[in-house]
């Protein structure tokens, strides 16, 4: 049942006695609870926020509507971890409890200064006619984890932009702090703008990022800018891009452009094409941070806006992706699961099998939550692949067509259907790597993350199979291929 606007904009303080607890009881009974992904105890999760390393720990907040599974009033929920693998729930980080964030503490980022963590976020407000007024706000967390709010730091949208003005991502360069903010021009095209500050409190408008995309969708959400290998990378999530061949198939997109470092004075950014970060069904609004050892890490929302999900009736919705490490190699962005995830590895299984024009159900491997490395070589077939979560009339299929150099994820038979109007397959180009295809998979109760050919392509999706759909099958059509498969139970 859809909630009314009044119900959606109630804070936890305004909930009925036991209301959230009842939602949690419902969520606890859901057959699709994840086991190694960050997920809300109850309610709806969306964007990752404030991802950082501070005071000896990683902190990762997320957008959270506690009282239902639709997008209502948003909080920042706080989690922390020493190893990027085991996350502790820390409770509410930022509540929408001032006049500057009365209709939601929207997305933002974190940066350390003077042993304090500054959380910069968008305070979403609405007047009685439901007109939106965004404020860019700051909250400060001390080393005890106590968070307090400062007055808003950007109170007005600059001329030329609409009230869709949000999601500050802050970084430091030399003596200044900078932030990029997602914006919409008054002609209804999306862009990102930049501000500069000497102290995180006084911000000056530097201008709009000068890209080669004057008309690319109607809004850019969650921009992020960083440098890697002496190159500048702008990430953002544009809305309003039309599908094209195998690209841009989801309701909204999320991608990056690589270029020469952004000119922090003129805002000029000389960049290449916009590329999707993830070629799966469910990935949006990612955010990066710098690890203390210099790695650039990324986490995304493993979900999409405006799509109904099968857990919506089960008291909870969505989770975050596993953390990925980003690198640029031979000019190409690579994304690999962070190496810390190997800590989860339990019992290991291995098979090496030549499959010749058949489907071969593995007798020694099955599962619901696992990591798997599949190396396919000696490929003499027109289509090769692997079927996961196989059960009665159910399977999630990942296949490669060598002649087309194309990798496809097919969730048409994955279980409970979703987002059917956006199709049931996702494909991307993938060149053979010295004649082989390598698939590194992380399968949780209701998701799959696929890293292909050592992080060259990634496909992420929610799937909603029956609990007893646990089979794993290899196949080769019109010829043969050699499969080397290693599977780890996850602890
Ligand atoms: C992206 C987004 C952001 C906004 C937040 C609200 O999913 O729409 O632009 O800050 O979600 O929850």
TrEMBL record:
Annotated coiled-coil segments of the chain: none
Pathway: Glycan biosynthesis; sucrose metabolism
Domain of life assignment: Bacteria
InterPro entries, per the entry: ConA-like_dom_sf, GH32_Enzymes, Glyco_hydro_32, Glyco_hydro_32_AS, Glyco_hydro_32_C, Glyco_hydro_32_N, Glyco_hydro_beta-prop_sf, Suc6P_hydrolase
Domain Glycosyl hydrolase family 32 N-terminal residue range list: 37-337
Pfam families: Glyco_hydro_32C, Glyco_hydro_32N
Cellular compartment(s): Cytoplasm
Main location: cytoplasm
GO molecular function terms attached to this record: beta-fructofuranosidase activity
Catalysed reaction equations from the record: Hydrolysis of terminal non-reducing beta-D-fructofuranoside residues in beta-D-fructofuranosides
Residue stretches making up the Glycosyl hydrolase family 32 C-terminal domain: 340-488
Keywords for the protein's UniProt record, in alphabetical order: Carbohydrate metabolism, Cytoplasm, Glycosidase, Hydrolase
Listed EC numbers: 3.2.1.26
Entry's Gene Ontology BP terms: carbohydrate metabolic process
Known role: Enables the bacterium to metabolize sucrose as a sole carbon source.
NCBIfam families xrefs: scrB_fam (TIGR01322)
Name the record gives this protein: Sucrose-6-phosphate hydrolase
């Amino acid at each position: 049942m859809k909630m009314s606007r009044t119900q959606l904009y109630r804070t936890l303080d305004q909930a009925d006695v036991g209301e959230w607890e009842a939602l949690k009881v419902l969520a606890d009974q859901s057959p699709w609870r994840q086991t190694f992904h960050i997920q809300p105890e109850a309610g709806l999760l969306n964007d990752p926020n404030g991802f950082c390393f501070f005071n000896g720990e990683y902190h990762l907040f997320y957008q959270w509507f506690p009282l239902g599974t639709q997008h209502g009033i948003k909080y920042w929920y706080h989690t922390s971890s020493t190893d990027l693998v085991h996350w502790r729930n820390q409770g509410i980080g930022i509540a929408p409890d001032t006049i500057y964030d009365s209709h939601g503490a929207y997305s933002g980022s974190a940066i350390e200064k003077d042993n304090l963590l500054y959380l910069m976020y968008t305070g979403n407000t609405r007047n009685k006619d439901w007109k939106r007024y965004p404020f860019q706000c700051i909250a400060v967390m001390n080393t005890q984890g106590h968070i307090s709010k400062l007055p808003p730091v950007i109170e007005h949208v600059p001329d030329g932009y609409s009230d869709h003005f949000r999601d500050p991502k802050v970084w430091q360069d030399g003596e200044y702090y900078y932030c990029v903010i997602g914006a919409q021009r008054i002609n209804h095209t999306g862009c990102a703008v930049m501000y500069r500050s000497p102290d995180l409190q006084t911000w000056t408008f530097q201008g709009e990022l000068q890209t080669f995309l004057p008309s690319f969708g109607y809004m850019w959400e969650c921009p992020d800018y960083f440098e890697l290998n002496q190159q500048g990378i702008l990430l953002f999530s544009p809305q309003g891009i039309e599908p094209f061949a195998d690209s841009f198939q989801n309701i909204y997109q999320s991608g990056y452009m690589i270029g020469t470092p952004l000119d922090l004075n003129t805002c000029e950014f000389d960049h290449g094409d916009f590329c999707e970060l993830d070629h799966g069904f469910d990935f949006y609004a990612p955010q990066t941070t710098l690890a203390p050892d210099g790695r650039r890490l990324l986490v995304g929302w493993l979900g999409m806006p405006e799509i109904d999900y099968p857990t919506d009736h089960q008291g909870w919705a969505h989770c975050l992706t596993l953390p990925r490490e980003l690198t640029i190699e031979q000019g190409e962005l690579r994304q690999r699961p962070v190496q810390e995830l190997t800590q989860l590895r339990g019992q290991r299984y291995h098979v090496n099998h030549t499959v010749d024009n058949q489907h071969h159900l593995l007798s020694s491997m099955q599962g619901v939550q696992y990591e798997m490395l599949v190396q396919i070589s000696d490929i003499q077939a027109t289509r090769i692949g692997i079927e996961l979560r196989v059960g009665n009339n159910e399977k999630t299929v990942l296949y490669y067509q060598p002649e087309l150099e194309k990798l496809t994820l097919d969730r048409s038979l994955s279980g409970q259907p979703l987002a059917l109007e956006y199709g049931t397959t996702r494909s991307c180009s993938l060149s053979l790597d010295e004649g082989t295809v390598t698939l590194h998979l992380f399968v949780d109760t209701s998701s799959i993350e696929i890293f292909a050919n050592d992080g060259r392509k990634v496909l992420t999706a929610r799937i909603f199979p029956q609990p007893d759909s646990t089979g794993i099958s290899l196949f080769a059509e019109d010829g043969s291929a050699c499969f080397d498969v290693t599977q780890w139970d996850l602890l």
